[in-house]
Amino acid sequence: MSSRRNRITEDEINELVYKLQSLLPESRRRSAGRASASKLLRETCNYIKSLHREVDDLSDRLAGLMATMDDDSAEAQIVRSLLDS
């Protein structure tokens, strides 16, 4: 009986899919359209992967920038303070 109480209804799935779709950027929402849940999940996974790549790229760029700064410079201290907050 407890498994019945924990089952998610089709309406709840549809609502979760709609909420997930609303979190995607406009361009990805258009490509997903009123897509199936599986297509939307694929689009979401692809978007998350692209965000990971972007974070990695920005981290590499920041590391390169920090390597060119004098550790005691005002700019380096500002960047460190921003990263610590």
TrEMBL record:
Specify whether Transcription is a keyword of the entry. Answer: yes
What InterPro entries has UniProt attached to this entry?
Answer: bHLH_dom, HLH_DNA-bd_sf, PRE
Pfam families the record matches? bHLH_ILI
The molecular function terms of the Gene Ontology recorded here are:
protein dimerization activity
Q: What processes in GO biological process is this protein linked to?
A: regulation of DNA-templated transcription; regulation of growth
Check the record and name the PANTHER family matching this protein: TRANSCRIPTION FACTOR PRE, TRANSCRIPTION FACTOR PRE5
How is this protein named in the record?
A: BHLH domain-containing protein
